[in-house]
Amino acid sequence: METVVAKADLENGKVFQAAAEILKQGGLVAFPTETVYGLGGDALKADAAGKIYNAKGRPSDNPLIVHIAETDSVYQLAADVPEQAKKLMEAFWPGPLTIIFKKKKIVPDTTTGGLDTVAVRMPSHPAALKLIKDSGVYIAAPSANLSGRPSPTTAAHVMQDMQGRIDMILDGGAVGIGIESTIVDVTGDRPTILRPGFISAQMIKDILGDVTIDPAIACMDKNLRPKAPGMKYTHYAPKGQLTIVEGSREKVAGEIERLVAEKKKAGYKTAVLADTDNVGLYSCENVFDAGSKKNEITVSAGLYAILRSCDDIGADYIYSESFEECDMGYAIMNRLIKAAGHRVIHVD
Ligand code: TXA
Ligand code: MG
Q1: Among the atoms of ligand 1, which is closest to the Cα of residue 177?
Q2: Cα angle at 228 between 225 and 234, to 5 degrees?
Q3: Does residue 254 share a domain with residue 196?
Q4: What interhelical angle do 327-339 and 296-312 show, nearest 10?
Q5: What is the CATH number of the domain that holds 125?
Q6: What does the alpha-carbon distance between residue 330 and residue 334 come to, in Å, rounded to a whole number?
């Protein structure tokens, strides 16, 4: 299969028409969202999920998020829209928030991985919204990476993973947020965050007055089984072995330098992820500026691209500083800790 790459130029009706046609015919189109690139297919076609997971190289037991462009569409997909969901939709849509609803029958079991609930999100990226509107299709889309690779934040990342596997890639440049949407479940007694993201627990609490965090992610305990089935996978792993080093900045830098020297002596290639403010503390090679904790979106936006770069240079061992666990930092650490397979060293 030849994969067509086209600029997601909103003025270019032809490009969107071609992409819309592919979706209507049951094909696959990767597209930009404000979080990461998605790999889209028709959410209401029973065989779409199978095609999507074939392209990703993973069995289709993982439920997909259905992307919509108008609030009204929720009522086509959800059997019940609780008051709390309405408040969240009002506050955060379009935007990086996915809400779990009880599903209607028209949503195929293949799309929801056999669950009786459906995940719905209205992205804010104009190209995503235009694609959904022009195609008239509710788009089921996981992140557009091959299974086991970090989520793609540029069209080039999608191309690396999906060339020859899907029909089309809409290139909308680098995404803004860089990590996947926050997922909230409102089907139970208490609203529950199943996956942290740009929309923080505090932001949700400000709207609903209450929210709990799925214990499986709250304490980041690898032995608890998360409620979002996809959260159990080591989604975000680079090929090299990633370790997070926590503690005061000088001690962390010292320990990372020591570990790097040790690995280098043994003939391994290393890479380091450091805060913008700390890059100067390192003298070893392949030190990536991972953005600034003071402006967390600078960290999230580049995180997956750096992990891919670590793969590109063939790093065997990767050491990362820790990024605070509040607000967005919490979501960033959730991804980093998973990518590290829970390997964290404390130096204080
Ligand atoms: O930002 C995003 O959400 C991106 C862009 C493309 O929209 N999409 C994304 O999809 O991250 P994916 O497939 O990589 O992650 C979907 C997550 C998985 O952890 C999955 O288990 C969970 O959503 N999920 C989907 N449907 C669910 C449901 N009915 N109940 C619980 N979790 C669900
Ligand atoms: Mg994913």
Answers
A1: 1
A2: 70
A3: no
A4: 20
A5: 3.90.870.10
A6: 6
Shortest-distance Cα residue to atom 22 of ligand 1: 228
Q: Is the CB of 120 under 6 A from ligand 1?
A: no
**Higher-confidence position of 108 and 226:** 108
Q: Tens digit of pLDDT for each residue in 67-104?
A: 999 999 999 999 999 999 999 999 999 999 999 999 99
Domain check: are 182 and 284 in the same one? Answer: no
Query: 25-37 pLDDT, tens per residue?
Result: 999 999 999 999 9
**Quick check: CB of 152 below 6 Å from ligand 1?**
no
77 and 11 together in one domain: yes
Q: Specify the number of domains making up the chain.
A: 2
Residue 336 and residue 193 share a domain: no
DSSP label at 25? T
Q: How many CB atoms lie within 10 A of CB 279?
A: 15
Ligand 1 atom having least distance to the Cα of 229: 21
Q: Which two tokens stand for residue 24?
A: 């209507």
- Rounded to whole angstroms, the maximal C-alpha distance in the chain is 61
Give 147-206 pLDDT, tens digit per residue. Answer: 888 999 999 999 999 999 999 999 999 999 999 999 999 999 999 999 999 999 999 999
Distance 291 CA to ligand 2 centre (A): 22
Question: Is 227 within the bounds of a domain?
Answer: no
How many C-beta neighbours within 10 Å does residue 160 have?
Answer: 16
- Measured at the CA of 96, the angle between CA 90 and CA 100, to 5 degrees, comes to 70
Residues 6+ apart with CB under 8 A from 262: none
Which domain range does residue 296 map to?
Answer: 241-346
Tell which one of 52, 67, 143, 192 to mutate to probe ligand 1, the residue whose CB is within 8 A of the most ligand atoms.
143
The DSSP symbol for 73 reads: G
CATH classification of the domain holding 250: 3.40.50.11030
Q: Do the domain assignments include residue 146?
A: yes
CA distance 214 to 190: 11
Strand 139-140 with 65-67, pairing: antiparallel
- Structure-derived torsion over alpha carbons of residues 38, 40, 44, 49, reported in degrees to the nearest 10: -90
Q: Distance between CA atoms of 132 and 40, rounded to whole angstroms?
A: 10
